[in-house]
Amino acid sequence: MRRVLSSLWRDTTGQDVIEYSLLLAFVVLSSAALYLHNAQAISRIWGVTSENLDLARSATS
With contact defined as beta carbons under 8 Å apart, do 42 and 35 qualify? Predict the structure, then answer.
């Protein structure tokens, strides 16, 4: 049993995959938190942009 645990402790074949998965999870959670925190501002920016595009379209007609 001790030999099996020792070999598992020294085995590093999946370490890179786990590290990149943790990094990806951190980036996704950070992006989601930033989006949720700034959702109203983003919505306001899209609304103003839409209004300006509508005004530009009506001015060219």
Answer: yes
